Amino acid sequence: MEKKLGFIGAGNMAKAMMGGILKNEILLPEDVIASDLYQPGLERTKEELGIAVTTDNQEVVKKAEVVVLSVKPQFYAAVIEEIREVVSEGQIIVTIAPGQTLEHLQELFGKPVKIVRTMPNTPALVGEGITGVCKNELVTEEELSYICKIFSGFGKAEVLSEKLMDVVVSVSGSSPAYVFLFIEAMADAAVADGMPRAQAYKFAAQAVYGSAKMVLETGKHPGELKDMVCSPGGTTIEAVRVLEEKGFRSSVIEAMKACVKVAKELGKK
Ligand SMILES: NC(=O)C1=CN([C@@H]2O[C@H](COP(=O)(O)OP(=O)(O)OC[C@H]3O[C@@H](n4cnc5c(N)ncnc54)[C@H](O)[C@@H]3O)[C@@H](O)[C@H]2O)C=CC1
Ligand SMILES: O=C(O)[C@@H]1CCC=N1
């Protein structure tokens, strides 16, 4: 029998995960419950997904064997304080917040609790997410596999060492935002050169999608794939020259280092 899955906080990330889990039939709507402080949002989620909803966080813990804490990192301490007494030994608490280490979470609970720390991303909504996963010593390998199965319902899930979790924030948790900026910028340029807006998004997004697929499916180095596009004396190498001149790669690297820094700082709060 499948375990019931609960979400405390039914915002963007929780809805992306629930959408992926239900669409791919990993769980049925009756096996999912979510709580939030914001009642109108909850009612919409109930209508859209057919799941049970409540404004009582403790009810989620009482009804679900696996509970995902899907509030902002700054609300973790308050939510844990609210639910810690009703969390039982056999339950699994899944976290999705940057910076919140297993050690810190354990301290907040103040008692032994099975915790799986993860970092998903919003492409979960369309079944193309990727999630980094690690666990504390109370979680068995079988339980970890079960959590990975749930996360695989909306993309890929990979177990890794906790010290890499801040990197996962920058390379996949936050990175859809940089990719959307990139797509928007490409579309703006296409519009500037006369293409209708909707068509520009389609062409830019499909080019990003196809390029990502080439990296994943050919196994070729991204540099080699880039070289395949650059004809001698052609259009692409000229665009590459300008991107290098404007510090494109360095901007991405610096932005991601800033992202990791904030993830580490969030863990100290
Ligand atoms: N949005 C993203 O792309 C990603 C977000 N995350 C993490 O997911 C978590 C949630 O982020 P988002 O969904 O983006 O935020 P959000 O603001 O969209 O959702 C958070 C929800 O929690 C609710 N909430 C606040 N306090 C609450 C409480 N005491 N009890 C119950 N519900 C409460 C809010 O009303 C809101 O609906 C954060 O920890 C974030 O770092 C992780 C990976 C990607
Ligand atoms: O911006 C944030 O803090 C969260 C974590 C990863 C994506 N969104």
TrEMBL record:
Enzymatic class: oxidoreductase
PROSITE patterns, sorted: P5CR (PS00521)
Reactions catalysed according to its record: L-proline + NAD(+) = (S)-1-pyrroline-5-carboxylate + NADH + 2 H(+); L-proline + NADP(+) = (S)-1-pyrroline-5-carboxylate + NADPH + 2 H(+)
Pyrroline-5-carboxylate reductase dimerisation domain: residues covered: 162-266
Residues that coordinate or bind NADPH: 57
Pathway stated in the Swiss-Prot or TrEMBL entry: Amino-acid biosynthesis; L-proline biosynthesis; L-proline from L-glutamate 5-semialdehyde: step 1/1
Keyword vocabulary terms for this entry: Amino-acid biosynthesis, Cytoplasm, NADP, Oxidoreductase, Proline biosynthesis
Every Pyrroline-5-carboxylate reductase catalytic N-terminal domain range: 4-98
GO-annotated biological processes: L-proline biosynthetic process
GO annotations of cellular component type: cytoplasm
UniProt EC number: 1.5.1.2
InterPro entries named among the record's database cross-references: 6-PGluconate_DH-like_C_sf, NAD(P)-bd_dom_sf, P5C_Rdtase_cat_N, P5CR-like_CS, P5CR_dimer, Pyrroline-COOH_reductase
Residues the entry annotates as binding NADP(+): 8-13
Top-level taxonomic group: Bacteria
Annotated localization: Cytoplasm
Statement: the UniProt record of this protein carries the keyword Iron-sulfur: no
UniProt keyword annotation of Iron present: no
Molecular function GO labels: pyrroline-5-carboxylate reductase activity
Role description: Catalyzes the reduction of 1-pyrroline-5-carboxylate (PCA) to L-proline.
PANTHER family: PYRROLINE-5-CARBOXYLATE REDUCTASE, PYRROLINE-5-CARBOXYLATE REDUCTASE 3
UniProt similarity note: Belongs to the pyrroline-5-carboxylate reductase family.
Protein's name according to its UniProt entry: Pyrroline-5-carboxylate reductase
Species this protein is from: Faecalimonas umbilicata
